[in-house]
Amino acid sequence: MNEQTNPLEIFEKEAPEVARAFDQLIDALKQTTGLDSKTKQLVYIGIKSALGDSKAISYHVVMAKTLGATREEIRDTILITLTVCGLSGVANCLPVALAAFDQV
């Protein structure tokens, strides 16, 4: 798989019914009211950083910034993963996150 391949497009092509069900799950999670949308995006950024998923980071950073997240909130969300996951997620994801934030 090359860098230009979008894994979600492959998922949708290869398993359209499962992809639709996944989209419905995402839509249902967006409708929950315990956290505001910006906070949900910050949680996603923290989780994706802990997993070292730098590709997803750039998407969620753009969404978080659009919802009002600051550069400092993005940075701190990633830095807090240090205590649980060590340096790997920060090293892989912080540069990507800040670059994505600065480009929007």
Automatic annotation (TrEMBL):
Annotated InterPro entries: AhpD-like, CMD-like
Pfam families: CMD
Entry-linked PANTHER family: ALKYL HYDROPEROXIDE REDUCTASE AHPD, BLR3452 PROTEIN
Protein name: Carboxymuconolactone decarboxylase family protein
Source organism superkingdom: Bacteria
Domain Carboxymuconolactone decarboxylase-like, first and last residues per copy: 16-97
